[in-house]
Amino acid sequence: MRNRAPFSIVVLLLTLQSCALGPDYQRPNLDMPATFRNGRPGMSADSFGDLHWQSVYPDPTVQILIEEALTAAPDLLLAEARVREAEAAAGV
To answer: How far apart, in whole angstroms, are the C-alpha atoms of residue 54 and residue 37?
Structure first.
């Protein structure tokens, strides 16, 4: 069996050298927007999770269907109640 140490050292040095940036590297100047949520000025950047579901789905037909699904699914209502209870306990 041959000694692999010299080969391993060469591979290691080449690998480390490939990670180095050149001496003339200049970080690009990127103009970053203040907010990423909305692409239009004048709109808030509130979290999507903080919005009430009725404002997310403004269609009355969809709202009726969601209300029917919530009343027909007691497990979902129980889960929602537990989430609200946990939020109240956490002070959210």
So the answer is: 19
When divided into structural domains, the chain yields a total of 1
With CA atoms as reference, report the closest residue to 66 among 75, 53, 49, 52. 53
The answer to whether residue 85 sits within a structural domain is yes
- How does pLDDT run across 16-46, given as a tens digit for each residue? 777 776 677 788 888 876 666 555 665 666 6
Does the pLDDT at position 53 exceed 60? yes
Looking at residue 37, the DSSP 8-state letter turns out to be S
Q: What type of residue sits at position 66?
A: I
Q: Find the domain containing 75 and state its range.
A: 57-92
Hey, what are 91's tokens?
A: 């002070």
- Residue 87 one-letter amino acid: E
